[in-house]
Design brief:
With 211 residues, this protein is an alpha/beta fold. Helix content is 23%, strand content 15%. It is built from 5 helices and 9 strands. A 4-stranded mixed β-sheet has the order 5-4-3-6, with no helix packed on it. α3 packs across α4. The longest helix is centred in the middle third of the chain and has 11 residues. The radius of gyration is 17 Å and the shape is globular. The N terminus and C terminus are likely disordered.
Length: 211
């Protein structure tokens, strides 16, 4: 990642915070506090990126993760999880529309349980529109973090549990390079190509926020 100027031993204060935050896309509400472990329901969804693994809170239907095959840090089905395809019908429909180029913004409820710092970074990802790209430095600026926190911002983006629906693929290096992506750079390229966010020509990026 070209923008990592932070001291390797330096991280943002909230990367070491034990607090967690639960966010629900519907209504844009956030609830702070300790996450309460509960049952996990799951299903797989076919996609151009390979079969997607979705998990959700059965009490609310909120998505808790979306992983691609061989994802770095991605989830795998555990023995005590419950297979529940019906719970994911809306997600499957919206993902199909997205990959068909017919949907530009997801309206699915989700719940994530990251530190306060990571939740701020993930919320900033939601503000990057379809067809645009931004940089790690710009994300840091949006959440009011110092430039020295860019490394921690990159770590939070890499830990995003909701690939595709929470668009970490729209974050690139300050020099226009695609940099890393937990799902693999080939998938990042496919997503940005679908959205029209790849370089429009030599040295140019569509909708880039420089930072």
């Amino acid at each position: 990642m070209t923008e990592n100027t932070a001291n390797p031993g330096q991280t943002a204060d909230s990367e070491t915070t034990a607090d967690s935050e639960t966010t629900t896309r519907a209504g844009r509400t956030a609830k702070r506090g300790k996450a309460t472990p509960g049952p996990v329901h799951w299903a797989r969804c076919a996609s151009p990126l390979g079969p997607l693994l979705l998990t959700a809170d059965p009490a609310t239907g909120a998505l808790t993760s979306l992983s691609v095959p061989e994802q770095k840090g991605g989830r795998g089905v555990l023995a005590h999880w419950r297979h529940d395809p019906a719970l994911f019908r809306a997600a499957e429909e919206q993902l199909a529309a997205y990959f068909a180029g017919e949907l530009k913004e997801f309206t699915l409820p989700f719940r994530t349980d990251g530190t306060a710092f990571r939740e701020r970074v993930w919320d900033a990802l939601d503000a990057v529109p379809y067809g645009a790209t931004t940089t790690y430095g710009e994300i840091a600026a949006r959440i009011g973090a110092p430039r020295a926190a860019v490394r921690a911002v990159g770590g939070a983006i890499g830990a995003n549990p909701l690939l595709v629906v929470r668009p970490c693929h729209r974050v690139i290096g300050a020099d226009g390079s695609l940099t890393g992506y937990a799902g693999g750079l080939d998938r990042k390229t496919r997503l940005l190509t679908l959205e029209g966010g790849l370089p429009a020509g030599p040295g140019g990026l569509r909708g880039v926020g420089r930072g």
